[in-house]
């Protein structure tokens, strides 16, 4: 057992187990002993129901739960020494001396003692009340062979059953056959708050009730309903989930739930076909439009992808040769698709599916978004003329003017991100309206001329003086600053 | 600097016992499958396991090879397979596929599934359906409390958040109750209990039930921890959605601290290797900066570096004997400190680089504007630009949620336009994410006459009053109005600042957000502890939609020592952030308390958003 460090390494490698490292502790053995001691001393209050646990754990030792030998042991354990067994024992003991028992009041039957605690005020069936007043009903039970007490121990009240379930014990729910019993069981589970138990009861209910009844009852039990919905999502019972939403008239959730399935479809054509089936679903008006767009987008992407893959492999198109595609455009967001089309298909006529203008129109892309994306794409290609054209507008007299729906400071930032040369940057920095922002940007991106000119316009001698230290010695900029500083034409404000 | 504890601060209980307990329990379980066996471990359990055991311990108990549970056929040739997993359906399917493949091949082996921290009936149902119930034996490893630090216990259940706050599944409430029960058996009963939130209340009730069923065990024990405070994450989403600026929180936001340790990449270690570093009180350098506002950290580190240099320099004037002493006694410590120092300096640099690149300043400015409720239009267009430029989808979502919660929902026009742009920028399938966020109440649309009320009244007509009450409960627990503005006013969450807030000498918990905002969750805790009850906080509780879910439970305090009464266990259901931990540590120092944190998982804004995201990256 005692392997060396090297062994350990090899061991890890051999099991092809990645990124799983344990910190080394040198004295783990002594620690282990120590902790064992600690645990042993803790035993009394850590082990919840001492001997019962031991017995149960014996069953873990190998025989799989559910096998015959296991259930034999479980039976034996239950009849004698499990926690509930003890309770049972207690009641049996007390039963043999029932004279000491407080006389059952008329509403509570004797047999209810066997079921453990009955909640005060809980429903007592008529037959219970009628038939259990005499000794007849319990006398025969006394004569039963020991093994049959198991029937009793299975005869838990809903609240005991639920408590047993919470402890993770095997517990048959089969005896809850009437709807009323089932619902009482469910209510008990809900009032105990343990979601695991609620789900356990729901699994049972789902199996033993028709779905109409189940749905009907859950509609007024929202906590349980949420558990069922989550459970169905987890096990992937899409059909029942959709039925449930339909029943509840939760049309939007129904639609979304159906739509969600497309995520599991890899093949683009199949996915497209699936999305087509989503179009008519009862989404909100707003979402309907999004679904329609999703379908149209994928449809477009499939066409563009096929076309471009062909172009690229033919090797005749310059743009694809110079800038090979890094990934397929399939299933990309709209903005990414627009970027792609501005990058590879910028000059195409509006009639083609891949042209940016066509995308803009089809998906009603706002100007702002369009300009932003086109700018990024053209700047990446260093197509400065295109960038220029994006912002140039002509007025009716034929004068050109630069306008940007996104603010020129953003334009500058995007250009800078794409390593635009200073001359280009400068031009756009100059277009920034707010003087402070302009100055900041110009300083940040080293557009010396803009800084110098702005300082001159502001008649801010001090700032200009300060800036002088930031430009290279003997550069044209320095000369320009010196010329300004010594100029007598300017009336400096400071 | 680095806030020393007050001399009268109470001692923390020793939580390392929890580790030993978990380890011994695991060993016990492994011994239940005698002989050589291969162990398959779920990825999410590896780091927690790492913190309590190591390979040689597993080997001592005849674990032969280790595998990760992933969707691949197993190559194991062992006769016995043991699976250590979270109780998840997909794990059951995986195990079933292995077992059924073996069956087809006519191979018999022993299989054992150890569920941690507990098994679920839904899992057993899958085993049954797949026809392998009985072929595998099931055990539970009740490892639900991992001490990540001297004052931080984590249940390592990040899924708690989505399961409860989105799906409304209460499956983990029992786990929480069990964990609390374990704590009270180990560290005595809690004389004072407070809580707020629907889940908090349920966990509390279930825990009480447990104690009653097994009563007598904690009776007669002296309480070690005087107070326990349970709090639901949805009581305060705002704090969790903010960018973190205390060092530990920033490290978490930037590098993701996982189970108390972080992977520093080459950009931090300034070598070609990544380094896994444990971040806790044992790291002396880290311990001094973890709760600091980031702006102080640089100065502190450089001061520290200078001191270190001075200590190294001392060796210059030394004679042989002194040198020998120096090498044998101090050098190791200095080297260790040196290593840590250079790591944290590297981390700081890397954080700075990243934050400058994403224009952090602007981002923080927007967040503060949202918290204070001014320039809403400007903030909205800032978010819009974020989306348009395809800045990280999680970040954009986070800002939208922050806007929604602080404003009680977006105005319909904004909601629609932001949503449309979001779908265009990040993919139409995020439609599902929006639906989730709406259900969880994180991102909603202001509607004249709440839409929920319409559904409620419609359903109510169908059923009796009692049931209708339940429905209203159910609805209100999920999506509810946040009332943040009113709460903020009532609790003074935005400190009035005259002049500059001195982050070097914090004066309140707001320092964890640069002095702009006192974390709501921490403020509530502070107020309740001050009053020892919810008295006078009715209006706040009402605004939090928690009128039925704020509770206090006090027992006689005669046995509790005054020291224990200054120890407070805060339980965050749905996760807590490092900023909240720092803020409460600060409060503790101010008041002479010490806080102990129990969280279902350490969280941050990105984790919350990812939990809501339907499209897994």
UniProtKB/TrEMBL annotation, chain A:
GO annotation, biological process: intracellular protein transport; vacuolar transport
Primary residence: cytoplasm
First and last residue of the signal peptide: none
Keywords, comma-separated and alphabetical: Cytoplasmic vesicle, Endosome
Presence of keyword Manganese: no
Subcellular location(s) per record: Cytoplasmic vesicle; Early endosome; Late endosome
Keyword Cell membrane: no
Ranges of residues in domain Vps16 C-terminal: 178-278
Pfam short name (any one): Vps16_C
Region feature Disordered, mapped onto this chain: 71-100
Cellular component GO terms, alphabetical: early endosome; late endosome
Ranges annotated as biased composition (Polar residues): 71-82, 91-100
Protein name per the record: Spermatogenesis-defective protein 39 homolog
Organism: Rhinopithecus bieti
Gene name, Swiss-Prot/TrEMBL: VIPAS39
From TrEMBL, chain B:
InterPro entries: Sec-1-like_dom1, Sec-1-like_dom3a, Sec1-like, Sec1-like_dom2, Sec1-like_sf, VPS33_dom3b
Keyword set includes Disulfide bond: no
GO CC field: clathrin-coated vesicle; early endosome; late endosome membrane; lysosomal membrane; recycling endosome
Keywords: Acetylation, Cytoplasmic vesicle, Endosome, Lysosome, Membrane, Phosphoprotein, Protein transport, Transport
Superkingdom field: Eukaryota
Keyword Cell division: no
Record GO biological process: protein transport; vesicle-mediated transport
Membrane topology: Peripheral membrane protein
Family matches, as Pfam families: Sec1 (PF00995)
Record localization: Cytoplasmic vesicle, Clathrin-coated vesicle; Early endosome; Late endosome membrane; Lysosome membrane
PANTHER family linked: VESICLE PROTEIN SORTING-ASSOCIATED
Similarity-based family: Belongs to the STXBP/unc-18/SEC1 family.
Protein's name in the database: Vacuolar protein sorting-associated protein 33B
Source organism per UniProt: Rhinopithecus bieti
Protein encoded by which gene: VPS33B
């Amino acid at each position: 057992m005692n392997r060396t460090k090297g062994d350990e390494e090899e061991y890890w490698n051999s099991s092809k187990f990645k990124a799983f490292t344990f910190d080394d502790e040198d004295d783990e053995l002594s620690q282990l002993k120590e902790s064992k001691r600690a645990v042993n001393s803790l035993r009394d209050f850590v082990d919840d129901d001492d001997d019962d646990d031991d017995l149960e754990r014996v069953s873990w030792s190998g025989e799989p739960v559910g096998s015959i030998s296991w259930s034999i042991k479980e039976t034996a354990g239950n009849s004698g020494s499990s926690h509930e067994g003890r309770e049972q024992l207690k009641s049996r003991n007390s039963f043999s001396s029932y004279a000491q028992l407080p006389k059952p009041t008329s509403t509570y039957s004797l047999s209810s003692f066997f079921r453990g605690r009955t909640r005060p005020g809980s429903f007592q069936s008529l037959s219970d009340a009628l038939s259990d007043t005499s000794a007849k009903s319990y006398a025969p039970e006394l004569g039963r062979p020991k093994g049959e007490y198991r029937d009793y121990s299975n005869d838990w009240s809903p609240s005991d059953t639920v408590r047993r379930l919470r402890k993770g014990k095997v517990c048959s729910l089969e005896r809850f056959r009437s709807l009323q019993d089932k619902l009482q069981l469910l209510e008990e589970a809900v009032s105990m708050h343990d979601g695991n138990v609620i789900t356990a009861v729901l699994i049972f209910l789902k199996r033993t009730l028709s779905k109409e009844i189940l749905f009907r009852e859950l509609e007024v039990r929202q906590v349980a309903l949420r558990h069922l919905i989550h459970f169905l999502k987890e096990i992937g019972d899409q059909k029942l989930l959709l039925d449930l939403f339909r029943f509840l008239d939760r049309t939007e959730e129904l639609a979304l739930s159906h739509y969600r399935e497309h995520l599991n479809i890899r093949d683009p054509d199949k996915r497209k076909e699936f999305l087509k089936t989503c179009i008519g679903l009862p989404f909100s008006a707003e979402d309907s439009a999004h679904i329609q767009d999703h379908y149209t987008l994928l449809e477009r992407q499939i066409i563009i992808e096929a076309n471009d893959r062909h172009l690229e492999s033919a090797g005749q198109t310059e743009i694809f040769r110079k800038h090979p595609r890094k990934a397929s455009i399939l299933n990309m967001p709209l903005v990414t698709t627009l970027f792609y089309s501005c990058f590879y298909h910028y000059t195409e006529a509006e009639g083609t599916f891949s042209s940016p203008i066509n995308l803009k129109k089809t998906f009603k892309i706002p100007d702002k978004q369009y300009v932003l994306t086109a700018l990024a794409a053209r700047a990446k290609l260093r197509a400065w003329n295109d960038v220029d054209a994006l912002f140039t507008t002509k007025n009716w007299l034929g004068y050109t003017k630069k306008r940007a729906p996104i603010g020129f400071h953003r334009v500058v930032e995007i250009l800078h991100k794409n390593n635009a040369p200073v001359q280009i940057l400068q031009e756009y920095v100059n277009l920034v309206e707010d003087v402070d922002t302009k100055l900041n940007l110009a300083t940040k991106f080293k557009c010396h001329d803009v800084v110098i000119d702005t300082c001159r316009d502001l008649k801010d001698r001090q700032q200009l003086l300060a800036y002088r230290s930031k430009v290279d010695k003997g550069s044209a900029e320095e000369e320009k600053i010196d010329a300004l500083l010594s100029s007598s034409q300017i009336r400096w404000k400071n | 600097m680095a806030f020393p504890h007050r001399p009268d601060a109470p001692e923390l209980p020793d939580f390392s016992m929890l580790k030993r307990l978990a380890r011994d329990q695991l060993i016990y379980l492994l011994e239940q499958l005698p002989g050589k066996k291969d162990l398959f471990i779920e990825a999410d359990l590896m780091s927690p396991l790492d913190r309590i055991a190591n390979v040689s311990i597993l080997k001592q108990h005849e674990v032969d090879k280790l595998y990760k549970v992933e969707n691949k056929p197993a190559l194991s040739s062992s006769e016995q397979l043991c699976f250590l997993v979270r109780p998840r359906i997909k794990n059951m399917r995986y195990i079933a596929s292995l077992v059924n493949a073996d069956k087809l091949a006519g191979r018999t082996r022993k299989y054992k599934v150890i569920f941690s921290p507990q098994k679920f009936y839904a899992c057993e149902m899958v085993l049954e359906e797949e026809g392998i119930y009985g072929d595998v034996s099931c055990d539970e490893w009740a490892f639900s409390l991992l001490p990540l630090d001297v004052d931080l216990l984590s249940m390592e259940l990040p899924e708690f958040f989505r399961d409860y706050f989105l799906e409304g599944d209460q499956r983990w409430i029992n786990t929480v109750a069990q964990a609390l029960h374990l704590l009270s058996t180990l560290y005595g009963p809690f004389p004072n209990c407070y809580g707020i939130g629907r889940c908090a209340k349920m966990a509390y009730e279930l825990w009480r039930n447990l104690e009653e069923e097994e009563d007598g065990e904690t009776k007669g024990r002296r309480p070690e921890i005087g107070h326990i405070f349970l709090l639901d994450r949805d009581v305060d989403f705002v704090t969790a959605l903010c960018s973190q600026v205390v060092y530990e929180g920033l490290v978490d936001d930037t590098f993701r601290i996982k189970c108390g340790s972080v992977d520093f990449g080459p950009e931090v270690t300034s070598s070609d290797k990544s380094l896994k570093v444990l971040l806790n009180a044992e790291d002396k350098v880290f311990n001094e900066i973890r709760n600091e506002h980031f702006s102080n950290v640089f100065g502190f580190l450089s001061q520290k570096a200078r001191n270190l240099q001075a200590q190294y320099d001392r060796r210059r004037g030394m004679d042989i004997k002194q040198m020998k002493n120096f090498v044998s006694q101090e050098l190791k410590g200095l080297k260790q400190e040196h290593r840590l120092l250079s790591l944290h300096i590297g981390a700081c640099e890397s954080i700075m680089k990243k934050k400058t690149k994403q224009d952090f300043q602007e981002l923080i400015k927007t967040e503060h504007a949202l918290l204070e409720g001014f320039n809403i239009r400007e903030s909205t267009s800032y978010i819009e630009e974020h989306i348009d430029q395809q800045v990280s989808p999680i970040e954009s979502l986070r800002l939208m949620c922050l806007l929604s919660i602080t404003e009680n929902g977006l105005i319909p026009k904004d909601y629609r336009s932001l949503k449309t742009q979001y779908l265009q920028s990040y993919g139409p399938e995020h439609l599902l994410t929006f639906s989730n966020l709406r259900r969880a109440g994180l991102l909603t649309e202001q509607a004249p006459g709440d839409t929920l009320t319409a559904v409620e009244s419609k359903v109510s007509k169908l059923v009796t009053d009692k049931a209708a009450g339940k429905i209203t409960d159910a609805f209100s627990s999920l999506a509810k109005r946040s009332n943040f503005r009113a709460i903020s006013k009532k609790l003074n969450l935005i400190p009035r600042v005259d002049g500059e807030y001195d982050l070097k000498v914090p004066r309140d918990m707001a320092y964890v957000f640069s002095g702009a905002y006192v974390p709501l969750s921490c403020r509530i805790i502070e107020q309740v502890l001050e009053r020892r009850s919810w008295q006078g906080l009715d209006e706040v509780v009402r605004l939090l939609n928690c009128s039925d879910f704020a509770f206090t439970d006090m027992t006689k305090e005669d046995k509790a020592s005054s020291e224990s009464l200054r120890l407070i266990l805060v339980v965050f259901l749905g996760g807590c952030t490092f900023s909240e931990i720092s803020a409460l540590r600060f409060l503790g120092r101010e008041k002479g308390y010490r806080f102990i944190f129990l969280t279902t998982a350490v969280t941050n804004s990105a984790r919350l958003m990812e939990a809501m995201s339907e499209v897994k990256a």
